[in-house]
Design a protein that fits this description.
It is a single chain. The protein has a domain of about 100 residues. The chain starts with a helix and ends with a helix. Helix 15 packs parallel to helix 17. The chain contains 23 helices and no strands. By secondary structure, the chain is mainly α.
Amino acid sequence: MSYKQLGRSKTLTFFSWAGTHMGFRFHHSVVDYMLDFLCRRKLFDDMKCLLITASLHNQGSVSCKALSICIRFLGRNGRIREALSLFEEMGTVFRCEPDNLVYNNMLYVLCKRQSSEEMVDLALSIFHRIQSPDTYSCSNMLVGLCKVGRLEAALEIFGRMDEIGVLPSRSAMNILIGELCSMSAKEGSVEKTEEAVDILMIAEERKLTCVGEGYSIVIQALCKHRRVEEVSKLFGRMLQHGLKPKLVVYNSIISMLCKLGNLSHATRVYEIMNKKRCLPDNTTYAALIHANGERKNWKVAYDLLTEMLGFGWIPHFHTYNLVESLLREHDQLDLCCKLERKLENKKLQKLCKNGQLDAAYEKAKSMLEQGICLSQSARDTLQDVFQKCGKLNVVRQLLDTTNRV
């Protein structure tokens, strides 16, 4: 087990030498260790030889751990048929009955690495052979069945887990909830999403760590169906339980409320978002700006767009044009000019940060020719990036020439 000092070659040489002197009658733990050593280095032919030799010199028996190691590594390297063959030979050739570790590794290979109809059917037949299914075997089956769209079978296993008191893994729970919501969207019905909500409530009751992600998935799905009451209830529960909604949750709710014309509630959610220190993005601002634009709330729309630019977000031209039109409509020409300066300076800074020096130079030149002043922040950014490339004089010459004019 000192292979880190010996190295791969010397480790294998010593193991072979020891075998000739001891007849390969190593303790199971040594065989397990060497199998892991060989599999991690993808020496599968050596692994097979070791299995056969160890079996012959130990009255045909090999530990379940050893076989589990081989099955796991074969499966993860795409050698599914070999893993299956080894699994089926456990009782007949190696005189070893599969334990839960072996079952779990075999189900992992079939359900998570392959996930075809054929492999999931095979996994299901293996699963039914397990006397006491545990979290991992059930969770592997949930993932496999969900991936091939067999939600009814997945729900049956989930129900069985509830009966025997086995908890699903975090990823399995989220995949099941996600697949139910996706199916609901395809069918154009909210029925499957309601089933997802029921599962989420079970997860919450059991205090599983996946509830935060589960809430996010379900709320997004309900927002697409515009189920305001259910969304409001779940969002309130999230906050009540101290969960921190992700940006995508806030955006889904705000966008839904804005589309329904419920601007006051959308604004309230935006305020909660700021209070919880979740930074908005382009999607957040676009929804609120367009909703306020439809109400002709030019002041709010302008403030939101200014705040958006302050965070470094570049608005879509439709969003910018909407605010500009509102300002002109209300004779706010000074604010139009101010907004244009902010936008152009942000565009210049973005070009600088992306390393597009030629484009940044041309942008700065065009702005100055049009009489658009560079902000101090934009000037500093422009000079910094050109200085790093040894071209500071080029920028200074441009700025000095413009200043003289």
